[in-house]
């Protein structure tokens, strides 16, 4: 073999090796099991990044709550145990109470991205938690209260919690306690199936999507309308890890995240309608609050959430900075 050819091959190998070494790697976890549609949405995002970022950036998914408990994942990102997590912002509400802007929102990520709301939330995440808020995924999906037994009303037409053993989580704790006057049982998503099966709880809140994925529809027979709240699933990245990425890697990640925000919001809006129709076709009955009772129910959910955010923000040195701006940007007024 002649010397020029050897030199060319050596240079090619060196370039290829350098290219491979230059690829940024990001470790990630997700809050829920892979069977849940929310996790599948995140894994679609991962596939898009890895395809578009080939040779530049790659996300390596370590697993879900079996690897790091869902409520422990935000701190795992903050403390550099992993670089990224797809998680509910409610799991770190004590650190970033402004996350309630998403929970109380009456719109979705498309609106909040266009008006600067998500950029504002990202700055707050960086200041308070040391993480980069990459995107609000699967947004615009509301919650309902689901029960095993037929719900009852009080004398004024409001929902009665008498006889209800409610399972709760940080999203709707304040609403259940302050408005409904209930003392809910806090259980992680992974424990709810057995709790329903054993009648430890007979009612739970959940989004309009994914009930069948969890098989909770085997026990729950009634859906209470109107729907309330909004999902707060998103992706956070350790700030040092984010800043350590190449500029091209950051651009790819942010570009794909913004695209996925829009695509997932549009797709989940249609999917919510489809899945609710499927549940009704399979026998789930809709229990609708009417008139002023329905208005009180919806308004109480929003007010309880904004009030919780205000109280928690007041305890932080930053105080109520951005409070009014968040209300404006996360509501389609």
UniProtKB/TrEMBL annotation:
Lineage top rank: taxon: Bacteria
Signal sequence annotation: 1-22
Keywords noted in UniProt: Signal
Gene name tied to this protein: dctP
NCBIfam families attached to this UniProt entry: TRAP_S1
Name recorded for this polypeptide: TRAP transporter substrate-binding protein DctP
Organism: Billgrantia zhangzhouensis
Lineage of the species this protein comes from: Bacteria, Pseudomonadati, Pseudomonadota, Gammaproteobacteria, Oceanospirillales
Keyword hit for ATP-binding: no
